[in-house]
Design brief:
Length: 274
Amino acid sequence: MKNIKRREFLQLSTSYIAGMFYSMPSFSFQDLKKKTLFLVKLAGGNDGINSLVHLNQYNLYKNLRPNISLRKTQLKLKISDKNNHYAFHPELSFLHDSYRRGELSTLLGIGIKNNDYSQTHSFQSHILNNVLNIHSENSNTNFHQELSRFIYSKKLEPLYHFSIKGFDTHKNSMSKHSSLMKKLNHHLSLLTYHLKRKNIFNNSLILTYSEFGRKSFENIKKGTDHGSSNIHFLLGGNLKIPRVLGEYPVLNKWDKNRNLDIHLDLKDVLAKVL
């Protein structure tokens, strides 16, 4: 895992980002800009719909995904916001606990407008991959050792980035995605542990993201194809923003390409926390 200066990222990305935002909720992100930012890429397009299930739409979810939906008996890690009820994937126990402690916000319906959903031409490939991934982690490096190396170094940089690979689940996604959720849960738990141990968690912010989302319905290979809207997570100490941001997409409300509505633009979120 390597780092890049926040200023360098902004110089390279601002011209692309400017003028392309959806409107964000009326709260301020100003306090977040003072924090060290950790970008965690779920490479290949995470299936956010199975990461955080909208229980209000469970019957529709089950009908759209007869072979790859989580059973109700698996959905025990529940949270609620007003009249909406959700459940984390059963492997995301740390994220559920973080939400209950007030250390995690869910980003619902997050995506990129006019994304072509390819791995080589998406927004992140143009900006984040070309800028940050030239410094990304060596896949053969032990994650725990790498975390210790940079967190306990004398100087903590303002921006870090690393990737977790394998999220392009086009076929036989159930067991594969479950393993990925377990890995994500472990990595975020470990990162948070070290940040708290060094007493810098309150000055840190962790943001997950993907190149794109997945379709709300399964394909013939018992997986999902590339889509638009996604679910992601923002973790940190002393968060002063709502714990639920955006709006969970209606699972059968599609555009002409059968993509879901986007309620938060990733470019906007990045611009506000960078």
